[in-house]
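Summary of Year 1 activities. Much of the first year was spent building the evaluation harness for sequence design. The harness presents a backbone, in tokenized form, and records the residue chosen at every position. We chose the following record to illustrate the format because it has been used consistently in internal testing since the harness was completed.
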């Protein structure tokens, strides 16, 4: 029979499909298996429509076979098959989907779940094969064969086939320097691909596999035999009724999928039916992966279409702040043949992602409310990510995240929420105080912290670099503003500076431009001195920004504050007649203020000499 041309702009469309729609060549096997599953589903559908047709699920399967010498891979199904007319229509026109048309016809039938939609999946075979043959037979019709070498065209001829169904034979391409095509003739590789992409196809996928077994009657001897093996598990756990499953079932699936190396903290089995439908199985890990806070970590849920994996990591399903969540989403409303670029614009996917976000938030709220110890363990692993999520969204995720944050309370000496902080405030209090530093112990010893705590007010301890940035983005909580205890507040220092004018003028002259101002206050309890910052940029933020690779980080506007009730002030006053000694005292006080903030004095040697000279 003469060769026919594809009805669509075949060469251009076929080449575009092969090189653009699919980013991985291994996807071809998923596509062919999905088509085979659709063919069996069609048999089931017609059996439901016609009482004279029987359907025994045990009689239906998909089989893979390999002939390494001839470089042949076959995918066979015992489904409905095709007549010559259907073969011509479905495979003679690229992007003509018999499954799509059938899906619209059978949408209301329970148990019928057609996967394919776009009609291009079959042609993915040409990514790995230079020849493709389709031998098929439908009940009541003559067998026929479709053959093609690619975009140049195809032939359809009568053929011999005893049984109903379809047999697709791929002649696998020869290996090149860039591509190892022979991997698709390796039974171990094929088994791995089935488990990865098609493990939950609901019909058995069979293949003859080599197995080693003892030789009967010959102790110690073994032989290699071919044994029929079912490669897929068929029934996905997420499609089972939750009442049938135990915590152990969920945990086993988590470990089998290698989502984590410890049991998950929580699992969420949820689904929606309506305008859009999906089932999700989500896990909150109990420990962060070793690379979680590195650029190598890839967030995302596995995305399935009717049990067939579309994408191993679909980042669009999770906001960055919940990137620690592991698991999967299965939706029949998402097309199997879809690229990542199309997914980013898919409305259904966005609706699913929004629902999942709400579900995760609700689960974390419940954990915080009902299992405080468990939540604190979770927060120790992933709390930083929640703070980054608040900062990176510039407050867009405020409502989502603000009540999930925990900070150490200086007053209560434990982790508390922002809500718990405000519940402990007096009605007239309008400020939520916080202090920043490298550790809880260090922050607790800061003069600024002690002075606020001495007033009976609480202070939140910020020990991570992102903390203050996140709070700056948050802006306020429950109508209360945030204030760094080291922030200059003229309203809090009402001490008259006039009696100290000569001393302050001398100190400013001694330090030059190292500080923007020097004041005397009565707020520091037993501490002689501290540094405060004026303006939006705190000293801790300055330290963080100075570590950035671009350099040229802005400097905080520093104010040196001296304790009016400390003996050192009287010593300094008395030393003004000895300018050299007085200058040394000022320099030492400034260096001590720097050390309290975790900063290094500009001249450590000079500081050491000043101390030695003063104690002679």
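For this record, the design step produced the sequence shown next.
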């Amino acid at each position: 029979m003469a060769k026919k041309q594809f009805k669509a702009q075949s060469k251009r469309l076929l080449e575009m499909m092969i090189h653009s729609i699919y980013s991985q060549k291994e996807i071809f096997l998923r596509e062919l298996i999905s088509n085979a599953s659709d063919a069996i589903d069609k048999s089931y559908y017609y059996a439901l429509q016609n009482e004279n047709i029987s359907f025994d699920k045990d009689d239906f399967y998909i089989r893979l076979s390999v002939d390494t010498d001839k470089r042949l891979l076959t995918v066979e199904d015992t489904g409905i098959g095709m007549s010559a007319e259907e073969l011509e229509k479905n495979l003679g026109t690229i992007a003509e989907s018999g499954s799509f048309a059938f899906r619209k016809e059978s949408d209301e039938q329970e148990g019928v779940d057609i996967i394919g939609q776009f009609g291009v999946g079959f042609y993915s075979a040409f990514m790995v094969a230079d020849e493709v043959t389709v031998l098929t037979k439908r009940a009541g019709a003559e067998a026929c064969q479709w053959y093609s070498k690619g975009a140049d065209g195809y032939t359809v001829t009568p053929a011999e086939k005893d049984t109903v169904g379809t047999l697709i034979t791929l002649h696998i391409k020869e290996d090149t320097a860039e591509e190892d095509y022979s991997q698709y003739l390796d039974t171990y590789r094929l088994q791995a691909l089935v488990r990865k992409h098609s493990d939950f196809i609901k019909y058995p996928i069979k293949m003859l596999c080599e197995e080693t077994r003892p030789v009967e009657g010959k102790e110690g001897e073994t032989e290699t035999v071919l044994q029929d093996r079912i490669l897929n598990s068929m029934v996905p756990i997420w499609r089972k009724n939750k009442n049938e499953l135990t915590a152990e079932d969920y945990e086993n699936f988590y470990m089998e999928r290698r989502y984590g190396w410890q049991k998950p903290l929580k699992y969420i089995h949820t689904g929606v039916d309506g305008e859009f439908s999906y089932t999700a199985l989500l896990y909150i890990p109990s420990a962060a992966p070793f690379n979680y806070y590195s650029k190598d970590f890839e967030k995302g849920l596995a995305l399935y279409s009717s049990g067939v994996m579309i994408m191993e990591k679909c980042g669009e399903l999770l906001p960055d702040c919940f990137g620690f969540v592991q698991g999967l989403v299965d939706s029949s409303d998402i097309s199997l043949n879809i690229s990542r670029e199309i997914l980013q614009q898919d409305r259904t996917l966005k609706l699913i992602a929004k629902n999942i976000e709400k579900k995760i938030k609700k689960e974390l709220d419940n954990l915080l409310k009902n299992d405080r110890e468990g939540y604190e363990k979770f927060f120790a692993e992933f709390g930083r990510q929640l703070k980054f999520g608040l900062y990176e969204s510039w407050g867009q995720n405020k409502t989502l995240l603000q009540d999930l944050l925990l900070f150490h309370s200086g007053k209560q000496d434990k982790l508390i929420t922002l809500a718990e902080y405000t519940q402990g405030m007096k009605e007239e209090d309008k400020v939520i105080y916080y202090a920043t530093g490298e550790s809880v112990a260090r922050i607790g010893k800061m003069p600024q912290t002690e002075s606020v705590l001495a007033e009976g007010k609480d202070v939140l301890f910020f020990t991570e670099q992102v903390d203050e940035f996140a709070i700056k983005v948050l802006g306020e909580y429950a109508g209360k503003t945030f204030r760094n205890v080291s922030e200059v507040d003229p309203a809090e220092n009402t001490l008259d500076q006039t009696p100290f004018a000569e001393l302050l003028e001398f100190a400013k002259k001694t330090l030059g431009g190292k500080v923007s101002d020097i004041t005397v206050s009565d707020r520091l309890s037993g501490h002689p001195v501290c540094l405060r910052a004026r303006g939006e940029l705190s000293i801790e933020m300055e330290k963080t920004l100075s570590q950035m690779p671009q350099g040229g980080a802005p400097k905080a506007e520093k104010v040196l504050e001296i304790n009016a009730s400390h003996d050192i002030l009287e010593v300094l006053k008395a030393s003004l007649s000895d300018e050299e000694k007085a200058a040394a005292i000022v320099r030492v006080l400034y260096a001590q203020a720097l050390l309290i903030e975790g900063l290094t004095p500009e001249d450590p040697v000079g500081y050491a000499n000043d101390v030695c000279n003063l104690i002679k």
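Residues 347-370 form the longest helix (24 residues). Quantitative recovery figures across the full test set are reported in Table 2.
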